[in-house]
Write a structure and sequence with these properties.
The chain is mainly α. The protein has one domain. The chain has ten helices and no strands. It is globular and about 60 Å long. The model is unreliable at 101-105 (pLDDT under 50).
Length: 209
């Protein structure tokens, strides 16, 4: 229980510091509303757990020691964020039309879930945390894989709750933007530029040995 508590505290600190996943959720909430943001958060939580499972299976060690694997994972996530950002920016006027029609945004369902998953599973911050930090809380005498999966589940649930809070707040602020067509255009453009910036930032993230 001491190890679980220590890991929970460490996870809280890591999740509380806004990273690519949190800012992506906020961008999604501003652009498409609370529903899309919450589905994105769910996809992100699944992605976090998949990363933990990968560490439990030994892949985390490869990410930690191989610069090539780390760079590949990082660039995949960065490229996808930039792609989504460019798309959101180009479609910013469509966002206004959808909002005015009461559609609440054009991104929903499986696509949004997958986008949240991919951004999370390729997040260098989470990958390095699981690969380098998570094993330090494991008792080598017990079931190592089982403990890692438990820790991964704890992290995913915490990320789900905290990121959902960010998404809910940002989605609520979206109503204010919806009172002006110009604000909607600015919001759609800003959301796109934010995702592009996140992708570029992720691309230049250095490894921490």
């Amino acid at each position: 229980m001491d190890q679980v508590l220590a890991f929970t505290i460490a996870s809280f600190i890591v999740i509380a510091v806004p990273g690519p996943s949190v800012l992506f959720v906020i961008s999604r909430a501003l652009a498409y509303g609370r529903r899309a943001a919450l589905v994105t958060v769910l996809g992100g939580a699944v992605g976090s757990f998949v990363l933990a499972a990968a560490v439990a299976a030994g892949i985390g060690t490869i990410i930690q020691t191989s610069a090539l694997v780390f760079t590949t994972v990082k660039l995949v996530g960065a490229a996808y964020l930039i792609y989504l950002g460019v798309k959101a920016y180009r479609q910013r006027r469509e966002l206004r039309a959808a909002f005015e029609a009461g559609a609440g945004g054009a991104v929903t369902g499986r696509r949004t879930l997958f986008e949240g998953f991919l951004v999370s599973v390729t997040n260098p911050k989470t990958a390095v945390f699981f690969a380098a930090v998570l094993p330090q809380f494991v008792d080598p005498v017990g079931n190592v894989a089982g403990q890692m999966l438990l820790f991964g589940a704890i992290f995913a649930v915490m990320a789900l709750a905290m990121d959902a809070g960010w998404g809910f707040l940002a989605g609520t602020a979206r109503a204010w933007f919806g009172r002006s067509s110009r604000r909607l255009d600015v919001m759609g453009g800003a959301a796109g530029m934010t995702m592009i910036g996140l992708g570029l930032g992720m691309a230049v993230t250095a490894r921490k040995d």
